[in-house]
């Protein structure tokens, strides 16, 4: 009974993200002409799953009180890589998938190295590495094109047992294989500690640097998984600048909606997933309410602005004005 | 019984000839200490006597310059707190080392969690936490509570549990009871007695005399970085202990105080001023020409009082009046302006007083820019003249005024902080421990300056952690304890002895006993 | 490497006094400009012609105007990521208002700038009063500005063409041979130098960038200063957009996308610390010219877009590693 309460308190941010998503999704379904059908869910899942991967990536870094503005570009770059190498026999395809994931992780590791060991500000570093990653993507795919192993792509974007969208299952598998082990490990806890209070973490002998590095690297890996799935959905690779910067932006929005604190230390990647689906649903809601598509960017922008302003409520509790400047 | 034991048993841990310097300042000089198992050893000393440095060295947070440490006659050296903890020395630090967003259980085994399949074993971790909390007498804290949801006193109990989770043989408690309520202190004492019975060596640092009398077996007094006396607890009277802590000759040369004060109305007065749970019912008056000291132990609300008067704190209660007129001060900008004319020399000159990378010149004129400019454009000639005047007045020594202020010596940096405020010719000057970490020569210059400013009718409120200074400089001293003014000393009544006694709240204790 | 630094110091020692105080980063940036020109001249003698140089300065002036605002914000230790769409909005709104007869013609440029200022104020309010990280606020306002412009244009490039005044400002000549855009940039630069070195506002900006705590405790209304700085940045972004639209004869969707990264890069390459508090405006000018020349040379050498992005990113990181490092952390 009381155990339940502690769990609730620990997961508050995540549950808030879930609540926002459920609310939006039920409003969406209620107003959808077709209602809750397998098709509707599959479309929603496939739309949301890409942002969910990127938001998870962003959440990992934000938990350490950092930020990665290159996630969207890693996503685009891995998409372009995948459109070259995830082809051929099952063996070749498997190697290709491994290569794509490795490339994503390497991009994240470069960010981590520059931020932690180069002692540079994450904002500027990741803007700059983002440009590099995009440049490489453009080198690989000056024009949209390429292909992907279609059997694999169809298998991973269709349905399992005719009802469950496979992409959701894939997302679940990633949560189980990447997020939960990270969360449960000493390094993962150190990442939270570093984001929550760097001085206390240092005094307690927590491996701050290793934790931060791991967070950036895993973020790259998750963005790479996102890029892979993008390729499965589109069957091509495209170095689209707008897509990359859009995903970066919405990953931050998703993280905030999912209850992850931008000051670090609080929230979870699972919350970020709910945040991502909630963010995607805003777009769909406008569709079912028959809002002129031209209004969509503006309304989404307003939602984003409101979401980031929520954090300012805590300011009212500040008793010493000097705390503004920390 | 204790005497025979201390002669017979070899000490569990010894430190000999320990020296530590920070820049030019000596924190410890040939200090030594021996602790035995099954005893509670109290360390006493004034602020800055070297206690904290000593503990940090023992706990591996600071590496000594000279000297050796022996654990059961084997020489040891610690490079990190974790190393010391593994050797069996755990420390409950004064500054909290808990991570607010993690649970109590996570915090207790933060650097050494039980593992299973490479991951943290939550079940085992929880069991460890429950054990440790029970040993610390805090069974009521649920291991899954997030630290940020706990009140300060409970967090302190978690700190103690965290130290106990290392299963140490020596436990250091540095001001570990300072945030605790009386009930919690009693619990902690029960725990400490049990640990003593289990054979642990306990090192207990506190400013609360009655606590030491109650719990310690043995006391060592530190002064100026040396251990000056050790005695069995209960063999010295309170006043004798205070004498040992002060012990030194008055070294600063202070300007003479004026004999009698004009009975002018107070320029600054506050009535039942309070803030949060840190300040209660502060009522004080400062007249022009008067230097009023704020005494007491570190962290009894002096800093908050000065910040509160300067308009930094939100939600203060009570009244502040300037020249008898009730005034609300909501920001330093208001505080410094026209009618009020207040200045605050902040505690930390590195982050609060100066912009280190900016030049001496830019720092000097920064607080007075509004007075040196017309319509937002700086009058360079006026600025130049004002800067020159103050550099001369305060004898600021700098190779050039165009070098970063951070490259000056500590004393000269402090002079720049004061000069930047004097440029505004303030009527009320608040000083937050302005002589900390600066050389004796500059200190003396500062005392002279304070008196000159007072003679020119400034009202000065002066917090210092150095009792000597309060005795030498102040016309009156208000002693704070736990956010309240507990004593007001005046004229010849301001003695170091009276200051230390009232800061430790010994009088009240004696009164209560009587 | 060490020899080079030694040479530089001895060179600096021999310089007349006013030059000796210049930040080495500024000298390096100007050195790089000369190096680029030299390399370019090996490729084609055109690179040293007056015509080419003026042309480059004209192109640089758009970036220069935007970078001036960006510098102000970076000096505070903040960042303004709303540049792309605030810029586009300034251009579109100016062109739109110009459609309303003579009154519109007169108000076109001020109105465009005004729109940018409003967004800057919004950014500043979020950063200074709501204490939201500047990066997040400005990302969000960028989307809002984009949303407004999509709504206004219907997603296509607007048909309004830039009014005569805007074209004249960007491409006309008051002084024969020197495009007006350069004069505009020079005027804004002069104003920036004055603002940063001679006014209480400028001093406060540096003070806040070094330690907002210390500035606040010195009695400065730091929140107001931060908000004004963001407003100026927004206004200058929009003005940059107005100039660019005048140059291209009309506003276009996403015309600002190519200016965000270069404006940050120009400020940082000019020796301004990304953590705030340090940097001289001269450095930003050098950074702007450096970036513009780099772009020009890469395009003359027919370097594809991909290569340009990579070169940018690498140049920024290398320069950051040279100057922009934070203190050693535990």
Automatic annotation (TrEMBL), chain A:
Its main location: membrane. Keywords: Cell membrane, Membrane, Transmembrane, Transmembrane helix. It is a multi-pass membrane protein. GO terms for cellular component: plasma membrane. The keyword Transmembrane applies. GO terms for molecular function: transmembrane transporter activity. It holds the Pfam family BPD_transp_2. PANTHER family: ABC TRANSPORTER PERMEASE PROTEIN YPHD-RELATED-RELATED. This is Monosaccharide ABC transporter membrane protein (CUT2 family). It comes from Mycoplana dimorpha.
Automatic annotation (TrEMBL), chain B:
One of its GO terms (molecular function) is ATP binding. Keywords: ATP-binding, Membrane, Nucleotide-binding, Repeat, Sugar transport, Transport. InterPro entries: AAA+_ATPase (IPR003593), ABC_carbohydrate_import_ATPase (IPR050107), ABC_transporter-like_ATP-bd (IPR003439), ABC_transporter-like_CS (IPR017871), P-loop_NTPase (IPR027417). Residues 13-249, 262-507 form the ABC transporter domain. Signal peptide: none annotated. PROSITE patterns: ABC_TRANSPORTER_1, ABC_TRANSPORTER_2. Belongs to the ABC transporter superfamily. PANTHER family: CARBOHYDRATE TRANSPORT ATP-BINDING PROTEIN MG119-RELATED (PTHR43790), GALACTOFURANOSE TRANSPORTER ATP-BINDING PROTEIN YTFR (PTHR43790:SF9). This is Monosaccharide ABC transporter ATP-binding protein (CUT2 family). It comes from Mycoplana dimorpha.
UniProtKB/TrEMBL annotation, chain C:
It is found in: Cell membrane. Keywords: Cell inner membrane, Cell membrane, Membrane, Transmembrane, Transmembrane helix, Transport. Coiled coil: none annotated. InterPro entries: ABC_transp_permease. It is a multi-pass membrane protein. GO terms for molecular function: transmembrane transporter activity. Its main location: membrane. The chain crosses the membrane at residues 25-45, 57-76, 82-100, 107-129, 135-156, 168-196, 225-246, 258-275, 281-298, 310-328. It comes from the Bacteria. One of its GO terms (cellular component) is plasma membrane. Part of the ABC transporter complex LsrABCD involved in autoinducer 2 (AI-2) import. Probably responsible for the translocation of the substrate across the membrane. The complex is composed of two ATP-binding proteins (LsrA), two transmembrane proteins (LsrC and LsrD) and a solute-binding protein (LsrB). This is Autoinducer 2 import system permease protein LsrD. It comes from Mycoplana dimorpha. The lineage of its organism: Bacteria, Pseudomonadati, Pseudomonadota, Alphaproteobacteria, Hyphomicrobiales.
């Amino acid at each position: 009974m009381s155990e339940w309460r502690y769990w609730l308190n620990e997961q508050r941010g995540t549950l808030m993200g879930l609540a926002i998503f459920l609310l939006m999704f039920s409003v969406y379904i209620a107003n959808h002409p077709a209602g809750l059908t397998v098709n509707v869910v599959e479309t929603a899942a496939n739309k949301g799953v890409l942002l969910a991967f990127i938001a998870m990536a962003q959440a990992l870094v934000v938990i350490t009180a950092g930020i990665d503005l290159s996630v969207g570009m890693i996503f685009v770059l891995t998409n372009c890589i995948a459109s070259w190498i995830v082809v051929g026999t099952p063996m070749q395809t498997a190697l290709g998938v491994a290569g794509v994931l490795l490339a994503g992780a390497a991009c994240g590791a470069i960010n981590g190295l520059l931020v932690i060991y180069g002692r540079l500000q994450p904002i500027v570093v990741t803007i700059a590495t983002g440009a590099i990653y995009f440049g490489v993507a453009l080198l690989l795919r000056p024009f949209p094109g390429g292909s992907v192993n279609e059997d694999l792509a169809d298998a991973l974007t269709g349905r399992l047992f005719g009802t469950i969208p496979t992409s959701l299952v894939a997302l679940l598998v990633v949560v189980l294989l990447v997020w939960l082990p990270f969360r449960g490990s000493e390094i993962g806890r150190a990442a939270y500690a570093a984001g929550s209070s760097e001085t206390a973490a240092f005094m307690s002998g927590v491996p701050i640097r290793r934790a931060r590095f791991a967070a950036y690297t895993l973020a790259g890996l998750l963005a790479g998984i996102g890029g892979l799935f993008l390729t499965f959905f589109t069957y091509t690779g495209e170095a689209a600048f707008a897509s990359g910067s859009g995903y970066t932006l919405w990953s931050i929005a998703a993280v905030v909606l999912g209850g992850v604190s931008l000051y670090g230390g609080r929230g979870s990647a699972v919350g970020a997933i709910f945040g991502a689906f909630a963010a995607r649903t805003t777009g769909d809601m406008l569709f079912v309410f028959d809002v002129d598509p031209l209004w969509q960017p503006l309304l989404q922008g307003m939602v984003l602005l409101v979401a980031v302003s929520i954090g300012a409520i805590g300011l009212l509790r500040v008793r010493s004005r000097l705390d503004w400047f920390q | 019984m204790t005497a025979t034991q201390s002669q017979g048993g070899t000490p569990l841990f010894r430190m000999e000839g320990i020296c530590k310097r920070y820049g030019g300042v000596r924190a410890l000089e040939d200090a030594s200490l021996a602790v035995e198992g099954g005893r509670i050893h109290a360390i006493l000393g004034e602020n800055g006597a070297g206690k904290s440095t000593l503990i940090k060295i023992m706990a591996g947070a600071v590496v000594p310059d000279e000297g050796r440490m022996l654990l059961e006659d084997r020489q040891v050296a610690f490079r990190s707190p974790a190393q010391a903890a593994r050797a069996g020395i755990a420390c409950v630090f004064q500054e909290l080392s808990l991570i607010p967003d993690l649970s109590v259980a996570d915090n207790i085994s933060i650097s050494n969690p039980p593992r299973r399949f490479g991951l943290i074993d939550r079940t085992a971790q929880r069991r460890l936490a429950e054990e440790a909390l029970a040993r610390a007498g805090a069974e009521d804290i649920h291991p899954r509570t997030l630290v940020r949801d706990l009140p300060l006193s409970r967090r302190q109990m978690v700190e103690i549990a965290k130290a106990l989770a290392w299963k140490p043989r020596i436990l250091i408690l540095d001001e570990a009871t300072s945030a605790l309520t009386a009930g919690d202190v009693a619990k902690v004492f029960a725990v400490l007695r049990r640990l003593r019975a289990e054979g642990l060596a306990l090192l207990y640092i506190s400013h609360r005399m009655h606590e030491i009398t109650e719990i310690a077996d043995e006391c060592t007094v530190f002064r100026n970085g040396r251990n000056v006396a050790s005695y069995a607890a209960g063999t010295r009277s309170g006043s004798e202990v205070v004498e040992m802590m002060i012990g030194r000759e008055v070294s600063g040369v202070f300007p003479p105080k004026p004999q009698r004060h004009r009975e002018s109305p107070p320029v600054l007065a506050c009535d039942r001023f309070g803030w949060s749970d840190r300040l209660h019912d502060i009522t004080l008056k400062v007249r022009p020409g008067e230097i009023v000291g704020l005494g007491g132990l570190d962290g009894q609300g002096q800093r908050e009082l000065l910040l509160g008067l300067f308009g930094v704190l939100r939600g203060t209660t009570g009244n502040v009046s300037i020249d008898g007129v009730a005034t609300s001060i909501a920001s330093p900008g208001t505080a410094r302006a026209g009618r009020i004319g207040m200045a605050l020399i902040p505690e930390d000159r590195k982050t609060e007083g100066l912009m280190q990378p900016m030049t001496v010149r830019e720092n000097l004129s920064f607080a007075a820019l509004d007075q040196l400019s017309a319509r937002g454009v700086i009058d360079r000639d006026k600025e130049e003249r004002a800067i020159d005047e103050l550099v001369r007045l305060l004898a600021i020594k700098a190779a050039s005024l165009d070098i970063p202020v951070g490259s000056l010596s500590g004393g000269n940096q402090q002079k720049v902080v004061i000069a930047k405020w004097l440029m505004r010719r303030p009527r009320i000057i608040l000083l937050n421990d302005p002589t900390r970490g600066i050389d004796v020569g500059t200190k003396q210059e500062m005392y002279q300056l304070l008196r000159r400013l007072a003679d020119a009718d400034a009202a000065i409120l002066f917090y210092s952690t150095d009792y000597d200074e309060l005795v030498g400089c102040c016309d009156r001293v208000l002693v704070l304890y736990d956010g309240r003014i507990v004593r007001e000393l005046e004229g010849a009544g301001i003695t170091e002895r009276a200051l230390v006694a009232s800061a430790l709240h010994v009088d009240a204790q004696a009164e209560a006993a009587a | 490497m060490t020899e080079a630094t030694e040479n530089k110091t001895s060179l600096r020692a021999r310089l007349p006094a006013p030059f000796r105080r210049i930040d080495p980063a500024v000298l390096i940036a100007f050195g790089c400009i000369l190096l680029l020109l030299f390399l370019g001249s090996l490729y084609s003698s055109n690179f040293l012609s007056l015509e080419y140089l003026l042309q480059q300065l004209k192109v640089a002036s758009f970036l220069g105007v935007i970078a001036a605002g960006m510098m102000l914000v970076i000096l505070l230790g903040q960042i303004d990521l709303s540049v792309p769409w605030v810029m586009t909005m300034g251009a579109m709104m100016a062109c739109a208002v110009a459609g309303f007869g003579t009154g519109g013609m007169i108000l076109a440029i001020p109105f465009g700038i005004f729109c940018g200022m409003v967004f800057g104020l919004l950014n500043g309010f979020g950063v200074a009063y709501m204490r939201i990280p500047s990066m997040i606020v400005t990302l969000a306002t960028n989307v809002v500005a984009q949303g407004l412009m999509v709504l206004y244009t219907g997603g296509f490039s607007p048909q309004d063409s830039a009014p005569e005044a805007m074209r004249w400002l960007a491409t006309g000549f008051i002084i024969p041979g020197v495009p007006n855009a350069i004069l505009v940039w020079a005027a804004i630069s002069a104003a920036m130098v004055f603002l940063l070195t001679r006014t209480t506002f400028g001093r406060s900006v540096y003070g806040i960038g070094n330690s907002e705590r210390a500035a606040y405790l010195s009695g400065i209304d730091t929140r107001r200063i931060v908000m004004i700085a963001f407003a100026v940045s927004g206004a200058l972004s929009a003005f940059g957009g107005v100039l660019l639209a005048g140059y291209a004869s009309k506003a276009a969707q996403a015309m600002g996308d190519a200016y965000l990264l270069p404006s940050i890069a120009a400020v940082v390459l000019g020796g301004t610390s990304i953590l705030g508090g340090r940097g001289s405006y001269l450095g930003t000018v050098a950074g702007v010219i450096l970036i513009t020349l780099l772009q020009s040379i890469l395009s003359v050498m027919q370097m594809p877009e991909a290569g340009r992005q990579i070169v940018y990113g690498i140049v920024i990181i290398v320069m950051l590693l040279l100057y922009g490092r934070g203190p050693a952390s535990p």
